[in-house]
Write a structure and sequence with these properties.
Number of domains: 1
Number of helices: 13
Oligomer: single chain
CATH architecture: Alpha-Beta Barrel
Largest sheet: 8 strands, parallel, barrel
Structural class: alpha/beta
Radius of gyration: 19 Å
Order of helices and strands: HEEEHEHEHHEHEHEHEEHEHHEHH
Length: 364
């Protein structure tokens, strides 16, 4: 697991190569404010090789945050993350590894009949109950998450992960009420609190696509204050001294800035609504911005009025710096499936992020 001494030692080794605030506090230590994402790409040996080289290079260049999920590329992404952590000239204690559970994963490749695969490999074996599935592919029941975490640790070849996310819980809203989903999350959090106490997980979080950045009347909305409250109850039930919910992950980029602009969450201490980013900042939750390049769309160009405010030699670097400049954002995650992109992404961190006033001015 990442440690205080390990991550600060990593920062001491690489920090002088980057601009101020590049490394930011997270968990017991610090983390680079640009992280390596592993979502995109085909589940092939060639893609594995490119990811392995890119990840190894990134870890040896100043990026000590890697984000993955059990379902990414049919479990292949987790496996190459583990390979890279072992192959890179870094220690495990220097690297923050995050993964996710919630979607039923294929193994190595997409099966010809996905429905039959889920039924035979997960339902009939008792890994997941049929009634817990949403859209035939998603579950967050305690038993399924516990099994998913065990598989992730095996894929990664690690004894623990630093952050474990419940993946897209809003998927469950397709088949059950919002209150029922909150109940599901509380049960899931209690399981993760138990695994945290056992040393399998450093902290946990919730990774979403829509839930926290849409208005209250949206059919995929979840209340961040309510989710936070359920985590606190779960920690108490599990006998933990503190609450292990430490992070949220959600899309944030120049063209998807709803997490900053949509005020749909009650302020933790004041009688007003705030955005997901503001709530997280006030509540002490770290935010990890996914889709920083809008899955590549912002690598070529970004809106001119925003572009002019940002530092960076390329549109991709300026888009990355926009995401990591937002209030409360700990790190921007960037899909890096090719070694060719590593140097450009790493170099984005040599430029200063926007200050709070400059960032606010972009939206005026």
């Amino acid at each position: 697991m990442a440690t205080t001494s390990g991550t600060w030692g990593y920062r001491d080794q690489f920090g002088d190569a980057f601009a101020r605030t590049f490394f930011r506090r997270f968990g017991p230590g610090v983390v680079s404010s640009i992280g390596v994402g592993t979502y995109l790409g085909d589940p092939t040996d060639d893609a594995d090789a490119r990811y392995r080289e890119a990840l190894t290079t990134a870890l040896e260049s100043g990026l000590n945050l890697v984000d993955t999920a059990i379902n990414y590329r049919c479990q292949r992404s987790e496996r190459v993350v583990g390979d890279a952590v072992r192959a890179a000239d870094v220690s495990r204690e220097e690297v923050v590894v995050a993964t996710k559970g919630g979607f039923v994963p294929f193994d190595g490749s997409r099966p010809e009949n996905p429905g039959a695969y889920v039924r035979d490999e997960f339902v009939r074996t008792g890994v997941v109950e049929r009634e817990d599935l949403a859209r035939g592919s998603h579950a967050i029941s305690p038993a399924f998450l516990a099994e998913s975490l065990d598989r992730s640790l095996s894929n990664l070849g690690l004894d623990s992960v630093d952050c474990y996310y419940v993946h897209n819980p809003e998927t469950q809203l397709a088949v059950r009420s919002r209150e029922a989903v909150y109940d599901q999350l509380e049960a899931a959090f209690e399981t993760l609190e138990e695994r945290r106490l056992a040393g399998d997980v450093g902290v946990y979080g919730v990774a979403t696509w829509e839930a926290f950045r849409v208005p209250r009347d949206h059919d995929r909305y979840l209340s961040l204050p309510e989710v936070h409250a359920r985590a606190e109850r779960a920690a108490e039930s599990a006998g933990a001294d503190d609450c292990g919910l430490a992070a949220i992950q959600l899309p944030f980029n120049v063209s998807m800035a709803d997490a900053f602009g949509v005020e749909a969450h009650r302020h933790p201490t004041e009688d007003r609504d705030v955005s997901a980013l503001w709530y997280a900042q006030e509540a002490g939750l770290d935010v990890f911005a996914s889709a920083s390049l809008a899955q590549g769309d912002l690598a070529a160009s970004i809106p001119e009025t925003v572009d002019a405010q940002l530092s960076g030699e390329t549109p991709a670097q300026r888009a990355i710096n926009f995401a990591r400049s937002a209030p409360g954002v700990t790190a921007a995650l960037v899909g890096t499936g090719s070694p060719d992109h590593v140097a450009e992404n790493v170099a984005a961190g040599t430029f200063e992020p926007l200050g709070a006033r400059a960032f606010d001015a972009v939206f005026e």
